Amino acid sequence: MRDRGAAAVLLLGVMVVVLLLGAALGTVGAYLRARVEAVAAADAAALAAAPVTFLPFGATGTPAEEAARFASANGARLLWCACPVDPSWEPRTVAVEVAREARLWPAGSLTVTAVGRAEFEPALLLVGEE
């Protein structure tokens, strides 16, 4: 019985497994990165839209337009925004959902979504610095 070349076949098998694991870890890493970036974009969009529901505060459009602008600046697109204009002094919560594309090799691309919420209390604008 000859064992010549058996080590080469074993080494080739180990290399294939290592390459597959590397590709899988790269795919998971790309997804996690896209997820973190989508969450950051959603939070930024909600935080930008919340004060605009009370007053423009230098914004050029509606709260939804402000949320879309900040989502876009963070590489995402706004899917929806629950941010109605409310001139009252009551606290309000703004919620937005954004989507971001993740390129996953060799699977192609995947859309990652995230929801962000922000609370705004206009009455706190009246509190002076101490």
Explain the layout of strands and helices.
Elements: H1 6-52, H2 63-73, E1 77-82, E2 92-104, E3 108-120
Antiparallel strand pairs: 1-2, 2-3
Q: What features would you describe in this structure?
A:
With 130 residues, this protein is of the alpha+beta class. It has one domain (6-126). It is built from 2 helices and 3 strands; from the N terminus they run ααβββ. It has helices spanning 6-52, 63-73, and strands at 77-82, 92-104, 108-120. A 3-stranded antiparallel beta sheet has the order 1-2-3, with helices on one face. A hairpin with a 3-residue loop joins β2 and β3. The mean pLDDT is 91.
Order of adjacent strands in the largest pleated sheet: 1-2-3
Helix content: 40-55%
Largest sheet: 3 strands, antiparallel
User: What is the helix tally?
Assistant: 2
H/E element string?
Answer: HHEEE
Unreliable segments of 5+ consecutive residues? none
Number of strand segments: 3
Structural class: alpha+beta
N-end to C-end Cα span: 89 Å
Strand content: 15-25%
Give average pLDDT, whole number.
91
Structural domain count: 1
Radius of gyration: 24 Å
Shape: rod-shaped
